[in-house]
Amino acid sequence: MTEKYSKLVIENIKKLVYEKSSNQRWSEVFSNCFDNTLETTVKITELGDTFVITGDIPAMWLRDSSAQIKPYLAVVNQDPRIKQLICGLVDRQIKCILLDPYANAFNETANSHCYHQDLTEMNSWIWERKYEVDSLCYPIELAYLLWKKTGETSHFTNAFKQAAKLIIEVFKTEQRHEHSLYRFERFGERPEDTLSNDGVGEPCGFTGMTWSGFRPSDDSCTYNYLIPANMFAVVILRYLEEIFKTIYKDNALAEKSKLLSIEIDQGICEWGIVEHQGKKVYAYEVDGLGNYLLMDDANVPSLLAAPYLGYCSIDDEIYQNTRKLLLSDQNPYYYKGTYLRGIGSEHTPKNYVWPIALCIQGLTADNQDEKVELLNTLVQTDAGTNHMHEGINVNDPKSYTREWFSWANMMFCELLLDYLEIRKLE
User: Fold this and answer.
1) Phi, psi dihedrals of residue 301, rounded to the nearest 5°
2) Is residue 422 a contact partner of residue 14, using CB atoms and an 8 Å limit?
3) Cis ω before 301 (30° cut-off from 0)
4) Cα 35–39–40 angle (5° rounding)?
5) Is the confidence at residue 13, as pLDDT, over 90?
6) Which residues, 6 or more positions from 248, have their beta carbon under 8 angstroms from its beta carbon?
7) C-alpha span between 276 and 340 (Å, rounded)
8) Entry pTM
9) How far, rounded to the nearest angstrom, does the alpha carbon of residue 272 sit from its chain's CA centroid?
10) Distances from the Cα of 26 to the Cα of 72, 362, 382, angstroms
11) Digit-coded pLDDT (tens) for 26-82
12) Cα distance between residue 33 and residue 21, in whole Å
């Protein structure tokens, strides 16, 4: 795909990274990763929109596709074709949401391909129908950032407005999941791939937060008020408030977004903050009935990513208390070994740390030394591939999951651009 865009623009940012990097391996890996997503995962369809596969799976996740493309905002003002690519992705994502706001991954065409024959309301466009709050957040974030970076508003179509209204309706419905029609069951696979109680999930009480069936790992929630996903929802509802007010001149919808954002945020403050060893921390999941989990998962949104998502500042006291917990043995998915230490996931084997989590750790670090250490670790544990993997064995970097993983590749690029303070290519 690179030939469809200005090679000069891409080469200029790679040159800038090379000149500023104190470790040659940083720029080598960046160069491979920054090219890889455009070359292997992006397609301009016959409809003129943009379809982005996650990597080694021929389907588009709303979450992954947004994260994969986000670092190209650094060059979006230098190449109108890249701007159109991002506009085209927002266009495709909006079509997907209007097809089914409960689905997390979609096919390029109505070919009826799917990951598994699940008991849920499928259609021919859907690859998988695991309802995850973050799937509805990521496209709004991308659309908002594109507007703020470029001033572009062409992607704020009537369809976008309808999808945004639908997102609000779904979030409000799922504040009281007992009234929802969403069901999901998968048989014969991992227990984390299905919902209990005939596809409804575990009981939960009203909190003001919005219910999520699955985590951004695509694993089912233990307790269905997923705090980091609700944090992200608070942020994108604030974005929608601004979009409705400024772009659509619709004060009623702006107010609706604002009020829902406040309700969810109040739910987080009342139910999502718990006492741990004499300090207030964020729980990962709660059920509104008194149960909660203290942990974090590598996939984003995560608790570690709260400042990255725009929910709170890095120096927020509760966040810092939570961060210390997450980056310690008190987090059941924090692993450390000979070569690596960091956060992994239930989605991959024990003692496998995710580069995505290491990148988020760097993007939320309050000092440059920690970012340098993490960048060095990332390039030293890529098993000589010049790409990022999904998970890496803490004691053997040659043992990893997924040969290459576009989301992880682009998170590395985002971390390096952040460290080098390259917000955009002037």
Assistant:
1) -75, 140
2) no
3) yes
4) 120
5) no
6) 156, 161
7) 27
8) 0.96
9) 20
10) 18, 14, 11
11) 999 999 999 889 999 999 999 899 999 988 889 999 999 999 999 999 999 988 999
12) 15
Which tens digits make up the pLDDT trace of 295-335? 999 999 999 999 999 999 999 999 999 999 999 999 999 99
User: Of 409, 286, 298, 414, whose CA–CA distance to 362 is shortest?
Assistant: 414
* Alpha carbon distance 340, 379 (integer Å): 12
- The residue whose two tokens read 């991954």 is 105
Could you please report the per-residue DSSP string of 192-235? GGS-HHHHT-S-----SS---SB-TTSPBPSSSEEHHHHHHHHH
**Single-letter code of the amino acid located at 219:** D
Query: Residue 52: what pLDDT?
Result: 97
- CA atoms of 91 and 156, how far apart (whole Å): 9
Angle made by CA atoms 394, 39, 389, in degrees to the nearest 5? 5
**Using the 8-state DSSP alphabet, how is residue 404 labeled?**
-
Structure tokens at 242: 């601004």
pLDDT tens per residue across span 190-210: 899 999 999 999 999 999 999
pLDDT in tens, 126-162: 999 999 999 999 999 999 999 999 999 999 999 999 9
pLDDT of res. 422: 84
Neighbours of 55 (CB within 10 A): 22
What DSSP element (H or E) covers 88? Answer: helix 80-99
The whole-angstrom separation of Cα 42 and Cα 92 is: 12
Q: In 129-232, at which residue ranges do the beta strands (DSSP E only) sit?
A: 225-226
Q: d(Cα 28, Cα 338) in Å, to the nearest integer?
A: 24
Burial class (CB in 10 A: 0-12, 13-18, 19+), 226: buried
Neighbours of 85 (CB within 10 A): 22
The counts of H helices and E strands in the chain are 14, 15
